[in-house]
Specification:
Length: about 180
């Protein structure tokens, strides 16, 4: 997600699902972590219909706020979003993702992705739902990013590591200016 418009799309979907459908209070849904997270949005015919948020910690990533508008459910959009999320995590070098899922959705999660319930952790509750913790192993990526990666790769926009970035293009401008001086 790179624009305010894309962030607003994620917020609109979450508002419709969590606030309207599940009656989650505003301050619980928008918990202060949105500007620190990475948001993915899935669209059908140019309409945003599903979203999730990712946050990154020292040795793992966390999948949060996965939701799909009611009219778009049953189309396996959660699989598409999660596949993109796990590709992103793998490329960043993460080998583990975690999630806190509504307990009632555990059967869907275990059919959708390879994940396990976190051992010896009781369920817990917030916003009127019971939650479970899951672990999601992430395979290593052949092109994972490291501190030794190309310096231009490290300054490219999030998720666009294989495309030339705007700052690389500035090198040519700087060379032209030096040549003209």
């Amino acid at each position: 997600m790179r624009t305010v418009d894309e962030l607003l799309q994620a917020f609109a979907i979450r508002s419709a699902v969590f606030m309207a459908e599940q009656v989650c209070p505003y301050h619980e849904e928008f918990d202060g972590n949105d500007l620190a997270g990475c948001h993915l949005v899935a669209s059908v015919e140019n309409e945003p219909v599903a979203t999730l948020r990712l946050r990154w910690f020292a040795s793992f990533g966390k999948v949060e706020r996965v939701c799909i508008l009611p009219a778009a459910r049953g189309k396996h959009l959660e699989r598409v979003l999660l596949a993109h999320a796990f590709e992103l995590a793998s490329r960043k070098g993460f080998r583990l993702m975690t999630g806190q899922i509504q307990a009632r959705l555990w059967p869907m999660w275990q059919k959708t992705i390879h994940c396990t319930l976190r051992d010896n952790r009781p369920s817990f509750a917030f916003s009127d739902f019971e939650y479970l913790e899951i672990d999601i192993p992430i395979p290593s990526h052949p092109k994972s990013i490291s501190p030794l990666s190309d310096p231009y790769l490290l300054i490219r926009p999030e998720g666009s590591w294989d495309a030339t970035g705007i700052l690389e293009e500035s090198v040519e401008r700087s060379e032209e200016r030096r040549a003209a001086a």
